[in-house]
Design a protein that fits this description.
heterodimer; A: 111 residues; alpha/beta; Udp-n-acetylmuramoylalanyl-d-glutamate--2,6- Diaminopimelate Ligase, Chain: A, domain 1; 5-stranded mixed β-sheet; 5 helices; globular; B: 246 residues; TIM Barrel; 7-stranded mixed β-sheet; two-stranded antiparallel sheet; 8 helices; 11 strands
């Protein structure tokens, strides 16, 4: 499933990294510990988190993730958005909590 | 130039996890027993016990750097130190404004009290001090430096509440004055993993919550005297002052 489809179906905001909207989303990973994501997320995962530090993008790039979804209305810090544009990894946003949006994405990806 | 022995990360009775034995008098006594020249008072998100410790320490000829261990929004623990009470109090306002209004449950977390020289309770903090404040690590760094303070991410190699556990790696552009390692971490193997930190000043401290832990880990600092300005120079490796690598 492409990032654009997720944006549409989950009604997500697109903050940055539009170049990556055609990235393929293989699965999802929900965590706010960047060291955990670095160790355990897989390539193609959409990463659901509330962290808005620039390091998020470095790890998303290192792990070849498809997108980052910020929960609870969080917005990327300026340098995070800049790096998202540079890397072509979209930063998306939702007002929902991690539990809810993870459940919805899980349901979509299982079909 | 002299070499001073410093344990820069000590909690007091004010930290909920700090033992009730961690009174200013007990801290000073333990520090002297361990032959420390300098201690840092760093309670979780509060500076309110610093003054009494400084007063007690002064009588004994022990230097205290006063500050706090701040929990940033990312739940990264960072030490902050300030040169005088004016700056310290201004930083306290920043902490008060940004600490969320979550009440402490003394049964779960322990007491959060300030005591005087006679070990009488003079203040009880009602907000839970181990919450994360509403400011990011970059915002905390800016505020500490705006006040002329020193900013030192705490126990960066730990798997909990550290810069590396929370943010995956140490942001190369973060403006820290030093990094703190736990006593178990060997400096050279740490630097092998993070070669871009090879110029950083590295301190080690006990993170003591009980008197007997004070001085279990310490930093040796070469400088003229124990003034805050000398300490700041040592962290910058300026004018022959330095934190001795161990």
């Amino acid at each position: 499933m492409k990032v654009t489809e997720i944006v549409e179906k989950l009604n997500l905001k697109v903050f940055s990294g539009k170049e990556g909207l055609n990235n393929e989303v293989t699965n999802g990973y929900t965590s706010d510990l960047l060291s955990d994501v670095m160790g355990h997320a897989d390539a193609g995962n959409a990463w659901i988190t509330l962290q808005t530090h620039k390091n998020v993008m470095a790890i998303a790039s290192l792990k070849d993730l498809s997108a980052v979804i910020l929960v609870k209305g969080f917005e990327p810090e300026e340098d995070m958005a800049a790096q998202s544009n540079e890397e072509g990894i979209p930063v998306l946003g939702t007002s929902e909590e991690a539990f809810t949006i993870s459940g919805k994405l899980y349901g979509m990806l299982q079909k | 130039m002299k070499v001073f022995k410093a344990d820069l990360h000590v909690h007091t009775v004010l930290s909920p996890c700090g033992s009730l034995e961690m009174s200013p008098a007990a801290i000073v006594k333990a520090a002297l027993e361990k032959k420390l020249d300098i201690i840092g008072i760093t309670d979780h998100n509060s500076t309110r016990q610093c003054r009494v410790v400084i007063n007690e320490a002064k009588k004994a000829g022990l230097t205290v750097y006063s500050g706090a261990e701040v929990t940033t929004r990312e739940e990264v623990h960072c030490l902050a130190f300030f040169e005088n009470f004016e700056k310290l109090d201004e930083f306290q306002l920043f902490l008060d404004a940004n600490l969320p209004d979550i009440k402490n449950d003394t049964g779960l977390f322990g007491y959060q009290v300030v005591v005087n020289e006679q070990e009488e309770i003079v203040y009880e903090e009602e907000k839970l001090l181990i919450s994360a404040i509403g400011k990011s690590i970059d915002q905390v760094e800016k505020e500490v430096h705006r006040l002329g303070g020193l900013f030192i991410p705490a126990h960066v190699n730990r798997s909990k509440y550290s810069l590396i556990s929370q943010l995956g790696f140490i942001p190369p552009d973060l403006k820290f004055d030093a990094l703190e390692l736990t006593k178990h971490q060997d400096t050279s193997s740490f630097l092998k993993s993070w070669p871009y930190l090879k110029e950083a000043s590295i301190i080690r401290s006990s993170d003591a919550h009980q008197p007997e832990k004070i001085g279990e880990a310490f930093t040796r600092i070469q400088m003229e005297n124990t003034s805050f300005k000398e300490f700041a120079m040592a962290l910058r490796n300026a004018g022959g002052r330095e934190v001795i690598r161990q």
